[in-house]
Amino acid sequence: MNFNSVYDFSDREKSVLVQHFSNTDKHVFAITTPRQVDRGALMSRYSRSDKTMRKIFLDEFVTNPNRGKEFYSKILSEYGDDSVAELGEAQIAIEWISNIAAKKIEDQRIGLSYLEKSSRYIPFDRKVGNMYKYYRDDRILKSKYADQYIESCDHAFDVYSKSINLMQKFIAEIEPIDDFVYFDSISKSEKPFSKLANGQDIESAKKVYNSTVRSKALDILRNLLPAATLTNLGISGNGRAFEYLLTKLYCSELNELKVLAHLLNSELDCVIPSFIKRVNEKHGKSLQSFMINTNKEISKLTDKYLGNIQPDSSPVDVRLIGYTDIKDAEANVVSAILYEHAHGQSLHDIMKLVKSFQ
């Protein structure tokens, strides 16, 4: 079918549309309008209209510069349609946070992607203001455990720092450079290091080897670093996920995470305010209260029912606590594969057939 007539915009309309879309006459196009709130609102309106997206933009957004903000205020705050919050995205950097805080944040995977400062490639031995980089909680520093905490963390960092060169030397001794092959530009093949003749190949091989040894040393030694070690974290995600992350941080018992909640909220307000505004409104506060009270009740139940179970003072490294029988697992996988290509047969009947062959 020919839908060209649907895109028969006037020259004036085209001059407007070309500033907000990648083309004005094709049925596949990119949305380039600069404001994220408008892009998100357009996508959502798209699903609730028989008009084409560019026609919606001309009819609703060109005539009303606040259409996007008004749309989100109504759909999110009044109707509670969470899915539209996924249409706004942000990239956030959080620096100088403890590994505990980082792991608490990274625990939420749906809708968010993370990049954390790598302890495998970056050494954590440098000091700032003559102090190692680990989190110093005010409550700990004001308690009777302050000196013990500082001494323990400093000692862990001291051992880590002094061991970096020693560990690299040890790895180089047990896995020397001659044990590996590298690209030889003359023969266009891989050769042992001792067989390389080209100077650039030799230098390149040394660089790769030294980098590998260093990374392996840091990978081993990072287990010495305390959980309070400070790191940097990059987060990319949609508004809905950030909204829930903020809610969880506000509900945390850790002061560091509560402080981060306020800071993160403030920065997200700079880039996607319409997508996370409910966090501190009536319904957002209600959800926070619910989560806080739920955690308190769970803690009470834990104390009540687990109090008589003694902590395991010498736990085994690995313990299998449950599994699915191999035959059942295979039957489930095979049945699911067959079901995808079935012609109306139920998964129940397919599974019965598969199990009959076992």
Name some characteristics of this structure.
mainly alpha
Structure description:
A three-stranded antiparallel β-sheet has the order 1-5-2. The chain has a two-stranded antiparallel ribbon with strand order 3-4. It is extended, with a radius of gyration of 29 Å. It is built from 14 helices and five strands. The longest helix is centred in the middle third of the chain and has 29 residues, at 146-174. The protein has four domains: 11-86, no CATH class; 120-224, no CATH class; 239-305; 326-356, no CATH class. With 358 residues, it is mainly alpha-helical. The model has no long low-confidence stretch (mean pLDDT 92). Helix 9 runs antiparallel to helix 10 and helix 13 (326-340) packs across helix 14. It is 52% helix and 9% strand.
Largest sheet: 3 strands, antiparallel
Q: Rg from C-alpha positions?
A: 29 Å
Spans of at least 5 consecutive residues whose pLDDT stays below 50 are none
- SSE order in H/E notation? HHHHEHEHHEEHEHHHHHH
The percentage helix is: 40-55%
Average predicted local confidence, pLDDT: 92
- Overall 3D form: extended
Question: Could you tell me the strand content as a percent range?
Answer: 5-15%
SSE order and pairing:
Layout lengths: L10 H7 L18 H11 L6 H9 L5 H12 L10 E10 H8 L5 E5 L21 H4 L4 H29 L6 E4 L4 E4 L6 H23 L8 E9 H12 L4 H17 L1 H4 L5 H25 L19 H15 L6 H10 L2
Helix pairs in contact: 2-3, 2-4, 7-8, 9-10, 13-14
